[in-house]
Design goal:
- The complex is a heterodimer of chains A (515) and B (305).
- In chain A, 57% of the residues lie in helices and 0% in strands.
- With 515 residues, chain A is an all-alpha fold.
- The longest helix of chain A has 29 residues.
- Chain A is globular.
- With 305 residues, chain B is mainly β.
- A 12-stranded antiparallel barrel of chain B has the order 1-4-5-7-8-9-10-13-14-15-16-17. A two-stranded antiparallel ribbon of chain B has the order 2-3.
- In chain B, a hairpin with a 2-residue loop joins strand 4 and strand 5.
- Classes of the chains: A mainly alpha (515), B mainly beta (305).
- The interface between A and B is large, with 49 and 52 residues.
- Chain B: This is Transporter.
- Chain B: Keywords: Signal.
- Chain B: It comes from Spirosoma radiotolerans.
């Protein structure tokens, strides 16, 4: 038997060590983005070309009270009381929203996309129920925020934000009402202020426009979006940045713009995107053009293809005839030397995928439960614009150019997929660890999306153009490494995406921004 | 006996959930000063049902997942009351349906120090109190967030204490352990911002929930054979996630209740064979596995000391 004293000592040491191990912090800390003074306030943005509005004056806003009026002074007094002392929670809200209105609402959209990117499960009888917009929280939830759906949601969100901000800039410089803290220096402000006129509030404009679009795109999230909208507006009061009439005018303006943008959404053809009755005709047409083996769902039970008629949805930066011209030429015939060479490349990877190939495949997979490849590129775009200290309106312009190019890429790619109805490599024995997309192979969606986004971003940030293109190339390669696309799916997708991006670039060059 | 038990958990690596610990089933029998043994154990575990949170699920796009492992375990008595146990498994895992590729490679190497802090003998019976501390680390940079993977890729610290009672050839051991799992870096970024996901920002680093473990083992030991039965319950200590689209598998809260039996027979003085079986009764974010294993033991086998 050992000595009790020794036992006691060692036990104490062990208990101490265990306590240290169990209690030490496991939190993950990552750098947060914070507010900044924009590099330029873009005072001429009220003249920039809008997407859905024909002119900023399509929407109206009331003439504000003068800064010497009793009504305004009462608002200032109210603002002072609200911003004088903040709770911890209010301070956090100020910092969070201070990063940028467009930035945060885009981030919220990405998160909603990730939450809703869940393919409906099959029922006991082997059927896949279709999500119902009128009953969004029933199983399966509406929407299934797959890449085409998400690309469209981002496009409408960004267009509404941009058009609303252009209109807001127009009225800001019409009325030129200064920020409250410039009127009364005793107001406590928690965020950097610029020379930008405060009426109507750009934050309230973005909040209202984003809220309306996201509520339509994610109808099951109304309480969540209500809370975000209220917090965003309140954060401007807590931060001492806007009086209530700035916010109310912004909210009114944002709502008017969003209503016009959503009117376009209702008639853009999305409601027919999942028309499964069309697939028989698509298959027959592809066979008539000489395709010997068509794409077949590899899931058990077989799942209907994702949005087979999304290719008919209205584009942003070109018309339907141009879309047909942009469609890549046919893929190699199955069994042809070109096809065999591409399949052999996949077979080689299948036998000995390197860790780096697996990493690249996983990094870009952006599959179920993620914010999809369009979300991946929206994040890249938002971060680049944030790094460049863009004003709200220039941030919105950047995201509108990128997101409309992404949606155009999705439409063209789905048009191509339905047109050729080409089988996936899994129909020839390939495995994959990145999730098998449930629609035809040719062309690669990742490649088309990525090339379009990279071309637009490269035009906005020329010094990073090579880096964006390298990322697009890697995203494209990732689908070969993941064994779900032939090389020719990816190279044709990249080329097509590049052409699609060029239309958004041309629009950006001609939008009056001089950027 | 110990060798069997050490590996029993190494080999039940589940691909829909975090790995269990190599040192998870350390027993109460000390090796003995400057005595050594080496075991090579092969195992196969399978499941066609898994638990999403606590709900049993089958997936026709996964079929039956089979994990085979070959594990080398060495044990050495550094002192009469201090043992060092090291283990290295080579793992291969594959699904019978769907399109997940086979994964294989060295998984996590572990080293454990076991210390018999206290022993009290009266007559033919003996009561001992032991402590063990182990550390495991991935040998290879394997993929840690796939439906079919060989492990979760975290570095883990395992602390446990045991009460071991032996009367003639009968023994019973009870132990309690806490396994601290380190953070892991995924190949991709996490797309959720919800703090309850344990991975609040949009990075690639995620937490692997810690677990606690209770094991009770009892059986008979003799000069030529040992046989025992055991039950193991692992419980997540931290809040984690449940299996779901976009949820990184390493963040899942994993728990299970398993029972098993092991047998050892000595054929020659320095050579013996062992075999084992285990089954999962209940689980959380893990496969409902059954496992068989068998192996050879070379060296001094002194379980009956």
């Amino acid at each position: 038997m050992k000595k009790y004293s020794q036992l006691l000592t060692i036990s104490c040491v062990l208990i101490g060590l265990s306590a240290a191990v169990i209690s030490c912090d496991k939190s993950i800390s990552e750098p947060q983005r914070v507010g900044y003074t924009p590099a330029s306030i873009d005072d001429k943005a009220g003249t920039w070309k809008t997407y859905v509005l024909t002119a900023p004056t399509d929407v109206t806003v009331a003439t504000p009270a003068s800064v010497t009026s009793a009504a305004y002074l009462a608002e200032v007094a109210d603002l002072k009381s609200k911003s004088a002392s903040l709770t911890q929670e209010q301070q956090e809200a100020v910092v969070y929203w201070g990063t940028g209105a467009v930035y945060r609402w885009n981030e919220i959209a990405r998160e909603l996309a990730a939450r809703y990117n869940v393919p409906p499960a099959s029922t006991a009888d082997g059927k896949y129920p279709v999500p119902d917009a009128a009953n969004p929280l029933a199983d399966p939830r509406f929407p299934f925020a797959n890449p085409p759906y998400t690309a469209r949601a981002f496009a409408y969100l960004s267009v509404a934000q941009y058009d609303a901000l252009v209109a807001a800039w127009n009225y800001k410089y019409t009325f030129k009402r200064s920020a409250p803290s410039k009127v009364d220096a005793t107001i406590r402000v928690a965020l950097p202020t610029s020379a930008l006129p405060a009426y109507p509030s750009e934050d309230a404009v973005v909040a209202a426009a984003s809220y309306t679009v996201l509520k339509a795109m994610f109808p099951g999230e109304v309480p969540y979006l209500d809370a975000k909208l209220a917090e965003h507006r309140n954060s401007r009061l807590w931060a001492g940045m806007n009086v209530m009439s700035d916010l109310n005018a912004g909210g009114d303006l944002g709502n008017q713009v969003a209503a016009k943008v959503m009117a376009r959404a209702k008639t853009d053809g999305m409601s027919a995107a999942n028309n499964q009755a069309l697939t028989a005709g698509m298959i027959a047409d592809a066979k008539a053009r000489g395709l010997s083996e068509v794409w077949v769902s590899q899931e058990t039970p077989a799942r209907p293809p994702m949005l087979p008629n999304y290719g008919a949805v209205q584009n942003w930066n070109f018309d339907a005839a141009t879309k047909v011209k942009l469609r890549p030429g046919p893929p190699p015939a199955i069994g042809s030397p070109e096809f065999t060479a591409a399949l052999d490349e996949l077979k080689t990877i299948n036998k000995g995928q390197t860790r780096e190939q697996a990493r690249i495949a996983n990094y870009w997979a952006d599959g179920a439960g993620s914010y999809t490849p369009p979300g991946h590129w929206m994040r890249t775009a938002a971060n680049a614009a944030n790094d460049a200290k863009y004003s709200e309106v220039r941030m919105a312009r950047t995201l509108a150019l990128v997101s409309t190019a992404l949606m155009d890429a999705g439409v063209c790619c789905w048009d191509t997929k339905s047109f050729y109805y080409y089988p996936r490599p899994q129909q020839f024995g390939m495995k994959t660890s990145v999730g098998l997309p449930n629609f035809p192979s040719y062309t690669s969606g990742h490649s088309t999306f990525s090339a379009a986004a990279a071309v637009v971003l490269g035009s906005i940030f020329p010094d990073q153009a090579d880096d964006f293109w390298a990322k697009a190339q890697e995203a494209s390669d990732s689908r070969v490494y993941g064994l779900i696309h032939y090389r020719f799916d990816c190279s044709a997708g990249l080329a097509c995406g590049k052409n699609i991006g060029a239309y958004a670039v041309a629009r950006g060059k001609a939008d009056g921004s001089g950027l | 006996m110990r060798l069997i038990t050490v590996t029993a958990s190494v080999l039940v690596l589940l691909n829909l959930a975090s790995k269990t610990q190599a040192q998870g089933l350390i027993d109460g029998f000390m090796r003995g000063q400057r005595k050594a043994s080496l075991a090579l154990i092969g195992s196969q575990s399978t499941f066609d049902t898994y638990y999403v949170n606590k709900t049993e699920t089958k997936n026709p796009n996964l079929g039956t997942v089979t994990t085979q492992a070959l594990t080398l375990v060495g044990t050495y008595g550094l002192g009469y009351d201090l043992d060092l146990i090291v283990a290295v498994p080579y793992v291969r895992t594959q699904a019978s349906a769907g399109y997940s590729p086979k994964q294989e490679g060295f998984q996590d190497a572990s080293a454990t120090l076991r210390w018999e802090a206290f022993d009290y003998k009266f007559g033919k019976t003996k009561l001992s109190w032991l402590f063990a501390v182990g550390y495991s680390v991935p040998v290879e940079n394997y993929v840690n967030d796939a439906l079919v993977a060989i492990g979760r890729g975290s570095r883990n610290l395992d602390g446990r204490t045991m009460l071991h009672f032996k009367a003639r050839s009968f023994f019973i051991t009870g132990q309690y352990g806490y396994i601290r799992n380190g953070q892991v870096t995924l190949d991709h970024t996490v797309n959720y911002y919800d703090p309850s996901q344990l991975n609040p920002n949009s990075g690639s680093v995620v937490n692997v929930p810690d677990v606690t473990e209770i094991i009770v083992r009892g059986g008979i030991v003799s000069k030529v054979f040992n046989i025992d039965v055991w039950g193991q319950q692992q419980t997540p200590h931290n809040r984690g996630t449940d299996i779901g689209p976009g949820v990184p598998f390493p963040t899942n809260a994993v728990g299970f209740t398993r029972v098993g039996a092991t047998a050892y027979v000595r054929l020659l003085k320095q050579f013996g064979l062992l075999a084992g079986y285990s089954a999962t009764l209940d689980g959380r974010n893990i496969g409902k596995t059954t496992q068989v294993n068998g192996g050879i033991v070379i060296g001094h086998w002194t379980a009956n000391n």
